[in-house]
């Protein structure tokens, strides 16, 4: 039952490690955007701006990362997957893989960001949990929009345009709660926000499972 | 003659209702409110636009679902026509709201969850149009657009249902959720125009969508002829 999922996720990681230029380009993208913000602001500006800047960088890195996972597959390989697994298995393993990948990326982004811009976060534990919830939200929504965009030429602009409006409900909740965590709010006061965020993620995953089979066949 | 009446009675009804709404909306008595004053009449037009937009966008989603189930191009073209109409009414809602905001709040735009929700709705559907524009293949375009339409509508609905409830304060009326659906606090004297207004604008939106659908169907057939 779990075997096709595991082998698909394993395959995705293997691909990522084999073709180091894609993951490398994402890391470089991340570091250079953080460095640009460092050059522009030189340290912590205000809690609000720190938060906004961090999430904008994370958001665009996530667009990049999730889209790359689809584009690098290529048409022939998609045909092969089509023969051996169900579309829902394929897309769910992509969601899981994207969650893990983004989780690694976001904690890395946080480390780099703190290194350059300084740490504005007062309540680190709740901030890290907000980051995890945010990643689940991003991965659950971006996977479908990236799958759509990957079928089209000129797809990086398109994935941004398509994802931005649909990811917004999620993003606003996460922005609010991460700002609260930065100013020192504990987990108990953030819990309702995180639950709403997880609920939206759940709805997005259900929709993805229903809708993906229609676009997967070329 | 009889078949004309049978097919078009609702259009005549729509015109009659909207004439009633425009005349009644501008002339009938309204309750005196401190800041609003006579601008309160805008409620028949501004809120009506949002009603019509959500109504027609919901129908667009229904058509997208029908397309995915049957694969008939007709439903895809219908969904496209309805999204275009929804955008038209969305912009109208935005403009009537902005004029109203200028008179009552003193500025065309305020940072408020409901206004932002409206802006996001319009951006969402512009993205839908962009998506369609970037795919050449008919079938692929229709499928991807239908999937995005369904996904985006649900996310948009979550946005306008969830976010306003989360906000600490909102300057826009109807704090508990969607203002267009909570009309309980409307003065009884205004309801006799407000409800017909909502229905009339919805009918008008369907009418416009129907005409747009016919235009787009002709365009689609012409494109098919050129290619095939």
Description:
The complex is a heterodimer of chains A (218) and B (228). With 218 residues, chain A is mainly α. Helices cover 86% and strands 0% of the residues of chain A. Chain A has helices spanning 3-18, 20-41, 47-71, 75-84, 87-117, 124-149, 155-182, 187-216. In chain A, helix 2 packs antiparallel against helix 3 (47-71), helix 2 (20-41) packs parallel to helix 5 (87-117) and helix 3 (47-71) packs antiparallel against helix 7 (155-182). In chain A, 42% of the residues are buried. The mean pLDDT of chain A is 86. Chain B starts with a helix and ends with a helix. Chain B has helices spanning 2-27, 43-70, 73-104, 113-133, 138-166, 188-227. The interface between A and B is medium-sized, with 32 and 26 residues.
Short description:
The complex is a heterodimer of chains A (about 220) and B (about 230). Chain A is mainly α and about 220 residues long.
Helix and strand arrangement:
The complex is a heterodimer of chains A (218) and B (228).
Chain A: H1 3-18, H2 20-41, H3 47-71, H4 75-84, H5 87-117, H6 124-149, H7 155-182, H8 187-216
Chain B: H1 2-27, H2 43-70, H3 73-104, H4 113-133, H5 138-166, H6 188-227
Features:
heterodimer, A: 218 residues, mainly alpha, 8 helices, B: mainly alpha, 6 helices, 77% helix, globular
The N- and C-terminal alpha carbons of chain B lie at a distance of: 39 Å
Largest interface: A-B, 32 and 26 residues
Binned, the helix content of chain B reads over 70%
User: Radius of gyration of chain B, Cα only, in angstroms?
Assistant: 19 Å
Helix fraction of chain A, binned, reads over 70%
Number of strands of chain B: 0
SSE order of chain A, as H and E?
HHHHHHHH
Oligomer: heterodimer
Q: Please give the largest β-sheet of chain A.
A: none
Order of helical and strand elements of chain B: HHHHHH
Number of helices of chain B: 6
Q: Which ranges of chain A are low-confidence, i.e. pLDDT below 50, for 5 or more consecutive residues?
A: none
Strand content of chain B: under 5%
**What's the overall geometry of chain A?**
globular
Mean pLDDT across the residues of chain B is 83
Please indicate the count of domains of chain A.
Answer: 1
How many beta strands in the DSSP annotation of chain A?
Answer: 0
Instruction: Give unreliable regions of chain B as ranges.
Output: none
Fraction of residues in β-strands of chain A: under 5%
Shape of chain B: globular
Helix and strand content put the structural class of chain A at mainly alpha
């Amino acid at each position: 039952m779990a075997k096709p999922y595991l082998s698909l996720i394993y395959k995705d990681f293997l691909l990522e490690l084999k073709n180091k230029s894609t993951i490398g380009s994402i890391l470089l993208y991340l570091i250079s955007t953080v460095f640009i913000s460092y050059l522009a602001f030189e340290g912590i500006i205000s809690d609000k701006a720190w938060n906004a800047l961090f999430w904008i960088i994370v958001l665009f890195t996530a667009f990049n990362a999730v889209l790359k996972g689809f584009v690098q597959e290529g048409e022939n390989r998609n045909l092969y997957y089509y023969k051996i697994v169900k579309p829902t298995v394929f897309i769910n393993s992509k969601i899981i893989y994207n969650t893990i990948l983004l989780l690694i990326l976001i904690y890395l982004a946080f480390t780099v960001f703190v290194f350059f811009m300084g740490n504005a976060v007062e309540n680190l534990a709740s901030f890290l949990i907000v980051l995890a919830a945010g990643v689940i939200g991003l991965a659950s929504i971006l996977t479908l929009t990236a799958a759509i965009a990957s079928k089209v030429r000129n797809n990086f602009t398109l994935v941004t345009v398509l994802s931005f409006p649909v990811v917004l409900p999620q993003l606003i909740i996460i922005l609010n709660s991460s700002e609260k965590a930065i100013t020192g709010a504990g987990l108990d006061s953030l819990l309702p926000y995180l639950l709403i965020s997880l609920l939206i993620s759940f709805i997005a995953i259900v929709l993805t499972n229903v809708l993906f089979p229609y676009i997967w066949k070329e | 003659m009889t078949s004309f009446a049978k097919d078009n009675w609702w259009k005549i009804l729509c015109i009659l209702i909207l004439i009633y709404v425009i005349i009644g909306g501008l002339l009938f008595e309204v309750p005196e409110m401190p800041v609003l004053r006579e601008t309160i009449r805008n409620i028949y037009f501004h809120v009506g636009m949002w009603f019509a937009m959500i109504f027609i966008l919901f129908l667009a989603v229904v058509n997208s679902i029908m397309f995915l189930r049957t694969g008939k191009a007709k439903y895809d073209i219908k969904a496209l026509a309805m999204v275009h109409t929804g955008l038209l009414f969305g912009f109208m809602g935005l403009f009537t709201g902005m004029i109203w905001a200028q008179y009552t709040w003193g500025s065309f735009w305020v940072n408020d969850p409901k206004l932002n929700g409206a802006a996001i709705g319009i951006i969402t559907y512009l993205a839908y149009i962009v998506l369609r524009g970037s795919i050449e293949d008919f079938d692929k375009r229709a499928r991807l657009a239908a999937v995005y339409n369904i996904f985006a509508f649900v996310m948009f609905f979550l946005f306008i249902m969830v976010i306003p409830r989360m906000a600490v304060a909102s300057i826009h009326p109807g704090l508990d959720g969607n203002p267009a659906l909570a009309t309980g606090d409307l003065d009884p004297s205004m309801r006799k125009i407000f409800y017909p207004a909502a229905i009339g604008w919805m009918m008008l939106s369907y009418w416009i969508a129907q005409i747009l659908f016919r235009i787009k169907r002709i365009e689609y057939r012409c494109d098919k002829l050129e290619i095939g």
